[in-house]
Design brief:
Helices cover about 70% and strands about 0% of the residues. The chain is built from 14 helices and four strands. The protein has helices at about 1-5, 25-45, 45-70, 80-95, 100-120, 130-155, 175-195, 200-210, 210-215, 220-245, 255-270, 275-300, 310-325, 330-345, and strands at about 160, 165, 170, 250. The strands form two sheets. Strands 1-4 form a two-stranded antiparallel ribbon. A two-stranded antiparallel sheet has the order 2-3. The chain starts with a helix and ends in a 12-residue tail after the last helix.
């Protein structure tokens, strides 16, 4: 019993099932990782710091989509529309009422929750492709409404949003933004991890597995589906609000359908049904275009392919998605788990048990 308990891979109390970190090794590595995150903005250059901010900002939307699709099993193609809803709510309130940050953020969250209810209702009747098309309508409706507001108010280049202010201090430095976005991403991750361990999270897993069985076990399938849409939409709209303040402007062109595809790719490439997969997928998708550009510069192809650089990025991005779907359905988190198992089992080898001769 002492060996099992010290190894950390066997639990002896029910309370241990609720621990986010099981072993001393995990706690030590977590402390090292947190220290590295806190020290990063003091050693990173401007470009590296901006990339980190992009990753942290995108991780909020990726976690939200993972809750909806990866855990609750509800397909959504309206993610960019929800981001736009949060951003436009922020921009309109700031432009029309000069609303401060502490008012625009909850207003964006309420707008996202309302859209989650409205467009979550079809999920009670629709499934699969039909549900995906209904959520796609959300994208076009929000983008159309935002574009009409821009046109009628004469904001041809977008809605300019001043940085959040706290007294005389303005949140306009990349380093300050890094810590704000890091806190937002950490809070979202902890909220999602604890929510998945609650009754609501278990209900989402159940309806993802088999709705009929979940209903037979006494789970309200309709309530579970609707709650998944509301929670995911609220988090996504908050990410849209932060996006508006971080970029300093809101424009309908920034929320194209390709942005939705990128978030779906984060979930697929990272690994379905894993919060770690959402984070790994976010890092991969955000940094992938910059890696392609660096590879082209290294190979001396940047000037030759400068006119088709976007086509090269799109083609490489699509190829990577296909490769992951075919050869690694579990995504990056599957690769991580296999590497982790290899280190845990090394230098021992798994051998089949000797059977009867």
């Amino acid at each position: 019993m002492n060996v099992a308990r010290s190894s950390g891979y066997y639990r002896t109390r029910y309370g241990e099932d609720f621990a986010l970190l099981d072993t001393k090794t995990q706690k030590a590595w977590c402390a090292v990782f947190v220290a590295a995150l806190l020290a990063y903005p003091f050693v990173a250059g401007p470009l590296a710091l901006d990339l980190a901010n992009q990753v942290l900002l995108a991780s909020l939307g990726a976690i939200a989509l993972m809750l909806l699709t990866g855990y609750a099993g509800q397909i959504s193609l309206g993610h960019a529309g929800l981001l736009a809803a949060g951003a436009f709510t922020t921009g309109i309130l700031f432009k029309e009422l000069a609303a401060p940050f502490w008012l625009t953020l909850p207003a964006a969250a309420l707008a996202g929750a309302a859209l989650g209810v409205i467009f979550g209702l079809p999920s009670l009747r629709l499934r699969g492709l039909y549900l995906a098309v209904s959520t796609l309508a959300l994208h076009f409706i929000v983008i159309y409404a935002g574009g009409e507001y821009e046109t009628r108010r004469g904001f041809s280049t977008g809605i300019i949003v001043d940085p959040p202010r706290l007294g005389d201090w303005a949140l306009d430095e990349p380093r300050a933004w890094y810590f704000v976005l890091l806190a937002a991403a950490a809070a979202t991750l902890l909220f999602a991890a604890n929510l998945l361990r609650s009754r609501t999270g278990r209900a989402w897993r159940a309806i993802h597995g088999r709705e009929a069985v979940a209903a037979a076990l006494g789970i309200s399938v309709h309530r579970a589906k609707l709650s998944a849409f509301v929670v995911s939409s609220t988090i996504t709209a908050i990410a849209g609000c932060l996006f508006a303040y971080y970029r300093g402007f809101v424009s309908a062109e920034a929320f194209s359908l390709y942005l939705t595809i990128e978030y779906v790719a984060m979930v697929i490439i990272g690994g379905m049904g894993s919060l770690l997969g959402a984070l790994l997928g976010t890092v991969f998708v955000v940094l992938f275009p910059y890696a392609i550009d660096a590879a082209m510069n290294l190979l001396g192809l940047a000037e030759r392919l400068s006119s088709v650089v976007f086509a090269v990025n799109y083609s490489a991005f699509g190829l990577v998605m296909i490769l992951f779907l075919v050869f690694e359905p579990q995504g990056l988190v599957g690769l991580w788990r296999r590497a982790q198992d290899w280190f845990l089992l090394w230098p021992f080898k798994q051998r089949p048990l000797a059977g009867p001769r």
